[in-house]
Design brief:
It contains 13 helices and twelve strands. By secondary structure, it is α/β, with parallel strands linked by helices. It has one domain: 3-Layer(aba) Sandwich (Rossmann fold), CATH 3.40.50.1820. The strands form two sheets. It has a ten-stranded mixed beta sheet with strand order 1-2-3-7-4-8-9-10-12-11, sandwiched between helices. The structure holds alpha-D-glucopyranuronic acid. Alpha-D-glucopyranuronic acid binds next to loops.
Length: 418
């Protein structure tokens, strides 16, 4: 009995195990992307802006029901409270506002740095952080917040107390001084405030507050955690458009990695977002899934089952059957500027697949009268290409760095010019 039982467990475990990732360009299968400019209901070609609007609706519904999941409508009774203002933050170079966004009994904290001594309103970058707001820059006067963590061995997810040591811990990823010096503001929110990033932690997140009575989890076409984080970004935009110091027509959203996937979906769903930066977003973000290079749909569904909606699971190892791919996610942002950035050592995120999605999406930008990537040859490292759709592959690892920010600020200077 016993050996057979163990053999069965071993076999089951082997079945669960991921096949090794493909990093060989020669093994990328031949694939055809679903067309952007053909209506799926009747096969009509899309030749102008009006026709694109109808096609856009189709694509948006596809990605919503098959990939990210439908988010709940924000409630009418949200509150915004500026709980603190420091007019001499960062040695007088900045104004810091600490804002509490009250929604469904939760308080989402938004921290806003604005450049001091310049005419306002100013354009603002908005992004979610992997850690609470005090980590974006070493500011001894910023309020501290705790972070969600899963403790071993109990597997319990809980909010850990804030630490002084966390101030500025993620400073290299935000480059606050650089942004301020260039005349931009930076608004950040902690993604864990919206939805802690753990499979099974739904009870602690915003999605639980919207569950229909008797339901323990969202339905298969309803929001996963990424859609919840994107929804949270939109709640940040809800506040920013009320702040007289912020230029509401120049709000850019930025995100790294899973939060890059999130930034793309936020841009796709919220037209108030004027520009989108996807940094190393990879699979489930800017990378073409059909290439099966690096991370795959199956990897995402296996390791992060809470990120996407239930319907996305059916596409594990069935990429060619997906009625969508990453070029559609980028195209939903058109005609607003979008920057896709990769890192050379981040092969897991498939830099070439990210570039090719940007190339394919450019077709929509061109239809709408803008220049896109303008080339289908992958550029050399640290050689940004494109106009309204822009791309670079930076040397170095999976990260968001000073180099990346310099490109984003130059891009914003050009694309968000008034
Ligand atoms: C993992 C995951 C990626 C994700 C990344 C991140 O590597 O596989 O899809 O982008 O984490 O968010 O850091």
């Amino acid at each position: 009995m016993m050996p057979t039982f163990i053999a069965m467990i071993v076999a089951a475990a082997a079945l669960q195990q991921a096949p090794p990732a493909n990093y060989d360009e020669a093994k990328v299968p031949h694939y055809t992307l679903p067309p952007l400019l053909v209506m799926s209901d009747d096969g009509r070609p899309v030749r102008d802006e009006g026709a694109w609007e109808a096609r856009r609706q189709e694509i948006s519904a596809l990605l919503e029901t098959q990939m990210f999941g439908r988010a709940s409508r924000p409630p009418e009774d949200m509150t915004f409270e500026v709980v603190g203002v420091d007019r001499a933050a960062l040695n007088g170079s900045a104004i810091r506002k600490d804002v509490a966004i009250g929604v469904k009994g939760k308080s989402l904290r938004l921290q806003l740095y604005l450049p001091a001594g310049v005419p306002r309103p100013v354009p603002v970058f908005l992004g979610l952080g992997f850690a609470p707001n005090q980590t974006v820059v070493a500011d001894s006067r910023a309020p501290l917040a705790g972070a969600w963590a899963r403790s071993e061995p109990s597997k319990e997810v809980s909010l850990q107390p804030a630490t002084e040591a966390s101030r500025g811990a993620a400073a290299s990823r935000w480059q606050v001084e650089k942004l301020l010096a260039r005349g931009y503001g930076l608004a950040t929110m902690y993604y864990g405030d919206i939805e802690p990033d753990f499979d099974g932690s739904i009870g602690h997140g915003i999605r639980a507050a919207f569950l229909a009575p008797g339901r323990q989890a969202p339905g298969d076409a309803e929001w996963g955690a990424i859609a919840a984080w994107a929804w949270g970004l939109s709640r940040g935009v809800d506040y920013l458009v009320t702040d007289k110091d912020v230029d509401r027509s120049r709000i850019a959203v930025v995100g790294h990695s899973r939060l890059g996937k999130t930034a793309l979906w936020a841009g796709a769903t919220d037209p108030r977002i004027a520009m989108v930066i996807s940094n190393n977003s990879g699979e489930g973000g800017a990378a073409i899934s059909r290439r099966r290079f690096g991370e795959t749909v199956a990897d995402l569904n296996r390791r992060f089952p809470h990120w996407f909606c239930g319907n996305y699971r059916q596409y594990s190892d069935r990429e060619d059957e997906m009625p969508f791919d990453a070029h559609m996610l980028l195209a939903l942002i058109a005609p607003r500027p979008v920057y896709v950035a990769s890192a050379e050592e981040d092969q897991w995120a498939d830099p070439k697949g990210e570039f090719l999605a940007a190339v394919a999406a450019s077709e929509v930008y061109e239809l709408l009268g803008h220049k896109g990537i303008g080339s289908s040859t992958m550029p050399a490292p640290n050689q940004p290409v494109g106009e309204r759709v822009r791309y670079h592959v930076r040397t170095g690892p999976h990260d968001i760095t000073a180099y990346d920010w310099e490109q984003y600020l130059d891009f914003a200077d050009r694309q968000l010019r008034r």
